[in-house]
Design a protein that fits this description.
The chain contains one helix and four strands. The protein is α+β, with helices and mostly antiparallel strands. The protein has one helix at about 60-75, and strands at about 20-30, 35, 45-50, 50-60. A two-stranded antiparallel sheet has the order 1-4. Strands 2-3 form a two-stranded antiparallel sheet. It has one domain (about 15-75).
């Protein structure tokens, strides 16, 4: 088994230890779900696709947090 970030497409590691404003972070997978229209009906436009979700607790603004994440882990996030 390889290390985190060692995969066929390259990529990198999200380096949480270098993010000074970060207190807590979590990644999780969310399976595709149908979202009700509020009246018990569904349509194709009401689908939320399979997703990787990121949530965190940090100091400062969301914009500053995302900039810090990109500054320390750009290769892991942008391909």
């Amino acid at each position: 088994m390889g290390d985190i970030g060692s995969n066929d497409v390259g990529g990198g590691i999200v380096n949480f230890t270098d993010m000074k404003s970060l207190h807590f972070a979590r990644w999780f997978l969310m399976e595709e779900v149908k979202i009700s229209d509020g009246e018990g009906g569904y349509s194709d436009k009401d689908m939320f696709p399979n997703s990787i979700v990121y949530t965190s607790n940090f100091d400062g603004s969301a914009d500053d947090h995302l900039k810090e994440m990109l500054s320390v882990s750009r290769d892991a996030i942008i391909k």
